[in-house]
Records
---
Amino acid sequence: GGLEAAVSIAKIAHDRNPLSPEPMWELAFVEERRGRLANAEDALEEAVRIQPASAETWRRLGRFQLSTLNQPADALASFRAAYFLDPRNPASRSDFLEASRANGQPGTIPP
C-alpha cells in the first residue's frame, strides 16, 4: 500500500548512488505495480544508460518489453545486447531465443 513512499525511496537511493542501476530496477517495479508502464520502462532505460556494459540491465529491460509490454522486436534488441555482453550466461541465450520466436524469427543465436 505504500507505493508512493516506495517511489520516493527509490529516487532517494538513485540520488545517493547515481551509478547504480538497482534503484532504477526498484522504481520500475513500483511503477509497474502502479500501472504506470511508461514510467517503468523509462526507469529500466535509465538503468541501461547508467550501466550500458551490464548484461543484467539489458536483460531486465528486455524481459519487461517482452513480458509486460508485448514488444518482442524491442525485447529482441535488448536481449541481443545482453547476449553480446554475456554470451556464456544461459539466461542470455534463452532470453534471446524466446524473443526471436515471439518476433516470428527462427531463433538462431548470433555469432
---
Amino acid sequence: MAHIIWSNDLSVGIEIIDSQHKRIVDYLNELDDARLKHSRDVVGGVIEDLIDYTQSHFGFEETLMEEAGYPYVNAHKKIHELFIRRINEYHDRFKLGDDVTEELHRTLTNWLVNHIKREDNDYSSVVQLHTAKGKVDLEPETSGWLGGALKRFFGKKK
C-alpha cells in the first residue's frame, strides 16, 4: 500500500462533495500508516470514522440527488447500502480480532476509483444543472438549501 494523493480526475465538480470525498483519501492514508506502524487502534479508529462518514455523507449526497431530481437516486442508494453493509462487516470482523487492514484498504481504493469516478460523476451534471437553475445554492456560507442541509447532516455550516 502507498499513500494516495487526491487528483482532479476524482472530482465530481461539486466542491462540497469533493471535500467530503477527500476524506476517503485520508482514510486510505491513515490505513497505510496504521499498517506500517502495526497500530490496531488506528485501524479501529478509521473503521469507526468510516461508519460515521458513510451515514452523514451518503445521507447528504442522496438528499442532494433527490432535490435535483436525479432519476437513478434509488439505485445509487442501493449501492450506498451495500457499502455500508460491507463497512459494518469489517467492523464486526475487526472486533472479533481479524486484521482487516489490507482488505479494507483495497475496498476503499476500489470505492474511490469505481464509485466516485463512475456513479457519483453520473449524478454530478444533474445536480450542477439544478444548481444553475437557482434551485440549490451550493455556497455553504449562505443560508440556502445547502446551508440547511449542511447543518442538518453535519451539525454546522461549513
